[in-house]
Write a structure and sequence with these properties.
Shape: elongated
Number of helices: 10
Largest sheet: 7 strands, mixed
Order of helices and strands: EHEHEHEHEHEHHEHHH
Length: 309
């Protein structure tokens, strides 16, 4: 029986592997004896897999080493690790050690108490470069406003959960989605653990602007109908503008202010058809959104606990 599992997605972390193994070894003195570490190498182009395969047989902790056939992304790697983890509770951390490994101890302690089902790291300080810090704050600010207001201001990069929550996340096997948004969507009892983000000492981050934009768009299209709402609102607002402009054009036409033959009916037709099209697309889109939402086959409800006497 395994008390606790630590899931670590690995991509481009060859330089950091020795330091990661050493830090995890130190951590084991503060974790339950029956603790395992699940490494998932996500099609890493460097020697991360070979480094782990060489180090883990002699490591001072139990481990699993899984390797994806190609790069599927960090969320897919985490999902693979959650499915393979044997622990009653599970912590997820990055291989670059920018989030303190001590959070795993805090997550295990909080989850073992039985008072919460999900523990997330809440970033209260960061030692990143100013430009990177500004970009991160901007990104997570947009995320909170468009996706989930419950999200901590600094976002979620590290979390822990019970086996039951992990099972729900694994069952939501959706492509082009956000695991973090799913973590908040499933609900359950949640606690936040504050921490300060550290400077990355080895290797280079692969969290590029392009990946951030894709992550935000995936979250928007998977968890909100905001684009359709904006389209519908634009169409309705445009319709009001059309009525005002149409009244002005018609007034000039009737008073003889427009002498060009056919100008008034042509202008009215163009204005009316344009915003009628936008409004219609918005209305049809609202139905499409609901159809799309049903094709995800997410559970309509989740039973958090069940008792029998």
């Amino acid at each position: 029986m395994t008390d606790f599992s630590i899931v670590i997605p690995v991509y481009g972390n060859e330089e950091n592997i020795p330091f990661l193994i050493a830090r995890l070894t130190e951590l084991m003195t503060e974790l339950p004896r029956e603790t395992e570490v699940v490494f998932v190498v996500d099609g890493s182009p460097d020697g991360s897999y070979d480094a782990l395969a060489a180090a883990l047989p002699d490591a001072a902790f139990r481990s699993q080493l899984l390797r994806h056939s190609r790069n599927f992304g960090s969320f897919a790697a985490i999902r693979t690790g959650l499915a393979a983890a044997k622990g009653d509770s599970i912590g997820v951390m990055a291989a670059d050690l920018q989030e303190p490994a001590e959070l795993m101890v805090e997550f295990q302690r909080v989850l073992a108490s039985g008072s919460v089902d999900v523990a997330v790291g809440r970033r209260v300080a960061r030692n990143d470069p100013a430009l990177s810090s500004l970009g991160s704050r901007t990104f997570w600010g947009l995320y909170r406003r468009t996706i989930s207001r419950d999200m901590p201001p600094g976002g979620v990069d590290v979390f822990g959960c019970t086996k039951a929550v992990a099972r729900e996340l694994v069952d939501m096997n959706e492509a082009n989605s956000s695991l973090v948004a799913q973590l908040y969507w499933v609900g359950f009892r949640r606690a936040e653990i504050p921490y300060g983000r550290q400077v990355r000492e080895h290797g280079k981050s692969t969290w590029t602007l392009r990946k951030r934009v894709k992550y935000l768009l995936d979250s928007v299209f998977s968890f909100t109908n905001l684009p359709l709402d904006l389209l519908l609102i634009t169409g309705l607002f445009g319709s009001l503008v059309v009525l005002v402009v149409a009244a002005v054009v018609l007034g000039f036409y009737l008073s003889g202010g427009i002498a060009e033959p056919g100008y008034a009916p042509l202008m009215l037709t163009i204005l009316f058809s344009t915003f009628l099209t936008i409004t219609s697309i918005g209305i049809v889109g609202a139905y499409v959104w609901r159809i799309f939402d049903n094709t995800k086959q997410r559970p309509t409800s989740i039973v958090m606990s069940r008792e029998e006497w």
